[in-house]
Specification:
Blueprint (H helix, E strand, L loop, with lengths): L43 E9 L4 E11 L6 E7 L16 H4 L8 E9 L2 E2 L1 E5 L2 E10 L4 E11 L7 E3 L3 E4 L5 E2 L2 E2 L2 E2 L16 E9 L4 E4 L2 E6 L4 E10 L4 E4 L3 E6 L5 E6 L6 H18 L7 E7 L6 E4 L2 E5 H6 L4 H8 L16 H15 L2 H19 L20 H39 L6 H12 L4 H9 L12
Parallel strand pairs: 1-14, 20-21, 21-23
Antiparallel strand pairs: 1-2, 2-8, 3-7, 3-11, 4-5, 4-8, 6-7, 9-10, 10-18, 12-13, 14-17, 15-18, 16-17, 19-20, 22-23
Helix pairs in contact: 2-4, 2-5, 4-5, 5-7, 6-7, 7-8, 7-9
Length: about 500
């Protein structure tokens, strides 16, 4: 695509001082667990789960409120249930089949057993991971409904976002979530094996989880626990969370650290981890770094849970990150832990369509995290190496099949290609942007991005507009080259 570079300076947007941007003006000893309210009506999930760990089954009831914020009446609403991708076949990149199914093939599902809207039974049509709820009465603009779903689920004995081993069971992207409705309509994508094929609005969650007494339950949000003679009930409350995730184990051992700003970091492990102090210290350093670059971490706690994952060595969820057991025990630097913590800002707080625009959270998180592990000179050198590596690959005539940041998840056939584009090319773009705007200008962009889109969804155009407004520069050609061209734009400052 041709790009007409005007070279003219854009009229600066409102002058914004980075120090004025955070929702919390400074770290307080006890950070508020209640972020600033979103402007749109927020959906509320009230969920009751009963987990039978030996059988790896779950029965549940979920009540979710939904408001029609469009000007049109709605005839249906849609729910995504990713676990149903694991009911048959193998929704895993071929590269990761061995790790995922280390214990053999196993299947999982989440089956809807009842559905009603405002207490009237409704028709449910399930197509793979997409659940259509046909409304018996149209939902008029600005009207609200309450959907009640009963379900039964089975957790497969696999290393994946939802999975299990002999030590623990974990539930990532487990709960059915409302599909996003935006200017393009309902987002009812099938499950893709590449990337993180998820796109959700921030919502409020109240989840109660019943387990046998000897199980430790960890999850998204503030937790309280009660017990009957034979059952433990763990209740979680989270405000404006992008999803709800949890893990259970009767072997979890807790190690904790309270940061200087009062955030509780809880590390739960089931194997003999020798570097717990390093893990907790790195987690604090990561929270501090991302807070300093964007805006203070606005939650009370952060949980790190040992689980078994496939190729990904960590997985981000609101206020909880899953880290693969083997990686946790063998990695020296644990860069993935810092990465998943960075996703608290880019994915959880500022949402984006991770199917269409994975670079918005992966590329940006990967670039910002570099400052935790290296100096500016280290980063310059690493980016030059990454650029040279990627340039060699992108000039190969046959491979990879996808070269652009505008490539959606379903355009990739190998995880390594997806990684090279949305992580490496994405990171290089934000490195180049930081070089273009300067250190202060880039931080101003990040602060403004947070101020505009915290707990909302940002589109690529939103991100570009924010960069242009905060810098006063016309960045049309810059972003067009990095996002849409097959080849790489020049390395900043001519390279080494
Ligand atoms: Zn990531």
């Amino acid at each position: 695509m041709l790009c007409a570079c005007s070279g003219t300076a854009k009229t600066p947007g409102p002058s914004v001082s980075v120090s004025e941007l955070p929702l919390q003006e400074s770290h307080s000893p006890t950070p508020s667990a209640t972020p600033a309210p979103a402007l749109q009506p927020v959906s509320r999930y009230n969920v009751e789960l009963t987990v039978s760990p030996v059988e790896r089954t779950v029965t549940g009831i979920m009540r979710v409120s939904f408001t029609n914020t469009t000007p049109q009446p709605m005839f249906s609403i849609y729910i995504n249930a990713p676990l149903n991708a694991f009911e048959s076949g193998s929704p895993v990149p071929e590269e990761f089949n061995g790790k995922t199914y280390a214990n053999g093939l196993d299947y999982g599902y989440i089956h809807i057993t009842s559905a009603d809207v405002d207490n009237d039974p409704v028709q449910v049509n399930v197509t793979g991971t997409v659940i259509e709820i046909s409304l018996s009465e149209q939902l008029q603009p600005n009207n609200r409904l309450e959907l009640r779903l009963g379900f039964e689920a089975k957790v497969p004995m696999i290393n994946h976002r939802t999975g299990a081993n002999e030590h623990a069971i974990w539930f990532g992207n487990f709960l059915p979530t409302l599909a996003v409705y935006d200017e393009f309509g309902w987002h009812t994508e099938p499950y893709y094996s590449m990337g993180d094929p998820f796109y959700t609005e921030a919502a409020d969650y109240n989840v109660s989880i019943s387990t046998p007494l000897d199980y430790i339950v960890v999850g998204t949000g503030e937790q309280t626990t009660s017990a009957t003679p034979d059952t433990k009930v763990s209740r979680f409350s989270a405000t404006l969370a992008r999803d709800f995730a949890f893990a259970i184990s009767n072997e979890y051992v807790l190690s904790t650290l309270t940061t200087k700003t009062g955030v509780y970091i809880d590390l739960y492990t089931y194997t003999d981890i020798t570097n717990k102090d390093y893990v907790l210290t790195l987690a604090e350093k990561s929270l501090d770094w991302f807070s300093s670059q964007i805006s203070p971490y606005p939650f009370q706690q952060l949980v790190i849970a040992e689980v078994g994952l496939f190729g990904s060595i960590g997985m981000e969820y609101p206020q909880i990150v899953f880290i693969d057991s083997e990686y946790l025990r063998t990695s020296e630097k644990l860069e993935s832990l810092a990465h998943e913590i960075g996703h608290q800002w880019f994915y959880n707080i500022i949402g984006n369509n991770q199917i269409d625009n994975a670079w918005m959270d992966e590329g940006l998180t990967t670039f910002v995290q570099e400052g935790i592990f290296g100096s500016k000179a280290d980063i310059n050198s690493k980016m030059w190496d990454n650029y040279s590596y990627l340039e060699d690959i992108l000039t190969e005539p046959t491979e990879p099949t996808t070269r652009r940041l505008s490539s959606r998840l379903n355009e990739f056939t190998k995880w390594s290609d997806y990684y090279r584009i949305h992580y490496l090319r994405g990171e290089l773009m934000f490195y180049a942007l930081a070089e273009e705007l300067g250190e202060d200008g880039f931080k101003q962009f990040l602060g403004e991005y947070y101020r505009r889109f915290a707990f909302k969804i940002a589109t690529p155009e939103d991100l570009i507009d924010t960069a242009e407004d905060s810098s006063g520069q016309d960045l049309t050609c810059f972003f067009d080259g990095w996002i849409n061209d097959e080849t790489l734009p020049p390395f900043p400052n001519g390279g080494e």
